[in-house]
Specification:
Layout: H1 2-8, H2 10-21, H3 26-55, H4 57-67, H5 70-81, H6 85-115, E1 118-119, H7 122-149, H8 153-180, H9 202-234, H10 238-263, H11 267-292, H12 306-323, E2 327-328, H13 330-349
Antiparallel strand pairs: 1-2
Helix pairs in contact: 2-3, 2-9, 3-4, 3-9, 3-10, 5-6, 5-9, 5-10, 6-10, 6-11, 6-12, 6-13, 7-8, 7-11, 7-12, 8-11, 10-11, 12-13
Length: 353
């Protein structure tokens, strides 16, 4: 039923493209393209899941590492091309916040209400929690030190590139560790595919992946093209749009999967999806965007504002404290959701920076 609804939402992608061609209201174009991106992101995830069955868990782990957040990566690439650097940085921070607070919170809340106290592997949760804190620290380092280096633009750029390389190396090491552990699901979403049986042929999976990626690129271009006028008309800031809206559009299908498995009492898998996706954004997507931005006129520096950094540290801290004891309940989920809602209110009323 859920998949049928998602596939039916593909009509929004077509409508968004047509509305853009006809020069319709930027608000209408923005809403339609945002809705159209949701099923396209789901198709990329489903096609990747099918490919993993044919490639095996090791190559599948790498596929998940590169394609797990493909939709959001594509959106931010088009935003980079348009010079919307604040939107890109906000979407990076917003994705991490959404996974650590909103999705993990919903998973704990609904899973706890249905099953009471749920348990998961403390060792793997501890590794995930440590990686989450390290990822936030890595994102914060350029923000703290760049102002002192700023007079030398070349040095500042090289500094950010060096930080990005270190982050990607750490991400690669974490992927290697997860694939060499035979007694755990691994920190990323790789465990989500271990017992999956192929429903599509290999050619079909490849074709769907290619078409969904192309459709996502097209819709992302339409969405980004309407961002500035739509936000101005609605009275929203790029910061709020990136922190809240863009992450939901790019990851909603994956988010729902994490919540669904939590309600099936598979809390370890749910935790792996939520934490794994946030780590993927912080340690892979963010540094990758630094190098991708070199293809355009505007170079992306990993310099976040004080409010984004405060939110990231708070989210990583509270999620880590909840994850390390190996148990969860509905109240902990409500706590995470409370923190997320507080940040939503704060960023909504925060004027443009």
């Amino acid at each position: 039923m859920f998949q049928k609804i998602l596939y039916g939402m593909l009509v929004f992608a077509v409508a968004g493209f047509v509305a853009d061609l006809l020069g319709a209201s930027p608000i209408l174009v923005f809403i339609l393209s945002a809705l159209g991106l949701i099923p396209l992101a789901d198709l990329i995830g489903t096609a990747t899941e099918e490919l993993v069955v044919y490639t095996g868990p090791r190559v599948g782990g790498l596929l998940n590492a590169t394609l797990g957040n493909a939709a959001e990566l594509i959106i931010t690439i088009f935003a980079l091309r348009e010079g919307l650097l604040e939107l890109v940085r906000a979407s990076i921070a917003g994705s991490i916040l959404g996974n650590l607070l909103l999705i993990l919170g919903l998973s704990l809340l609904l899973g706890g209400l249905k099953h009471g106290v749920q348990t998961f592997d403390r060792r793997q949760a501890g590794i995930n929690a440590t990686l989450a804190m390290l990822a936030v620290i890595a994102l914060a380092v350029p923000s703290f030190f760049s102002p002192a280096i700023e007079p030398d633009v070349i040095a500042e750029t090289r500094f950010n590139e060096g930080v990005a390389i270190v982050m990607i190396v750490l991400y690669g090491l974490s992927i290697l560790y997860s694939m060499t552990q035979r007694d755990g699901p691994g920190y990323a979403e790789t465990g989500h595919h271990e017992e999956h049986e192929a429903h599509w042929s290999l050619p079909r999976a490849l074709v769907v992946l290619a078409l969904a990626t192309a459709g996502t690129a097209l819709m992302s271009e339409v969405l980004v093209g309407a961002v500035e006028e739509a936000t101005a008309t609605l009275g929203l800031t790029e910061l709020f749009l990136g922190i809240i809206i863009i992450p939901l559009v790019g990851n909603v299908a994956e988010h729902l999967v994490a919540v669904q498995v939590a309600t099936k009492n598979q809390m370890e898998l749910s935790l792996g999806i939520a934490l794994g996706s946030s780590l993927q954004i912080a340690l892979f997507v963010a540094p990758a965007l630094v190098f991708i931005s070199l293809l355009f006129d505007n170079t992306l520096l990993l310099i976040f504002n004080t409010f984004e950094l405060a939110a990231l540290f708070a989210a990583a801290l509270v999620a880590s404290l909840i994850a390390v004891d190996g148990e969860s309940n509905w109240l902990e989920g409500a706590m995470l959701l409370t923190v997320y809602l507080l940040f939503v209110l704060a960023f909504f009323f925060l004027p443009g920076i």
